[in-house]
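Incident log, structure service

09:12 report received: a user says their structure output differs between two submissions of the same chain.
09:20 pulled the input from the user's history:
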Amino acid sequence: MKKINLAIFCSNLFLMLFCGLNLLAQQPPKTFIYRQIDADTLKAYVFQPTTPGENHPAILLFHGGGFKFGDASWCFDRAKEFAEKGIVSICIDYRLANNGLTPIDGIEDACAAFTWTRIHAKELRIDTKRVAGYGISAGGLLVACAAELQSLRGNEIPGKSRPNVMLLYSPALNVVNEKPFDALMQGKGNSADYSPSEFVSSKLPPTLIIQGEQDSITLARYARTYRDAAMKVGARCILVVYPRVGHLLTRNVMHQENDFDPDPTDVADAYKREDDFLQSLGYIAK
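09:34 re-ran on a clean worker, output below:
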């Protein structure tokens, strides 16, 4: 019988285990249908943490795209990072403002996504009292409206349809008299009724805002006004503004709508601040 080299055997065993864990970490998200409305089948893509146990915190991620473009996969990379830190991370598809739809439909979907998440808490292994919302650009408005609006289309928004925490990245916080948003509304509502800046109250959940100083799409002054209003009523709202960069922390401030060049140093710092913020709230272990 051939003699086994123990060092080589242990090395190979470690390599197999490492590769197996790596493959496990790279597993695609589990896909659920969280809402079926008319012809639209809306999906939630769930990245589970590898850590065992129940009652994990959760975070729902809503992509940007000016309310007209994009899909949940735009948030997959960030969702994977949150999952690696022990958070059940759920990327949400929502109805875009095309074919007669408006941002109001997207807000309705955001509320439905938070409700669905809590209803399926046992299956998803989450703590219903620790469900954060992560909104990028247009997605920031959806998350903030879910948190702040009292009602939607005549129906009161219940607590189960709201985030407990908000992380907003270049968010659309003030759309009052904003012509692009008015056009998306197609006369089906007043923009001021869906502008997060109009509804800041002491009930605002703990909030972190990431913002570029040179943002020409979602302006830094709107983020500052929002933060100041939150602080005035005693809500916890942290604003981090990065100089010299624009929307989504792009370095290409001359073409912010269609040619993004995110500053890697600023993005890394922003992600760390998001992680630290979640850690301070007990969503990420110290």
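09:41 both user submissions now match this output. Likely a transient worker issue. Closing.
09:42 reviewer note: DSSP finds eight helices and ten strands in the chain. The longest strand covers residues 126-136.
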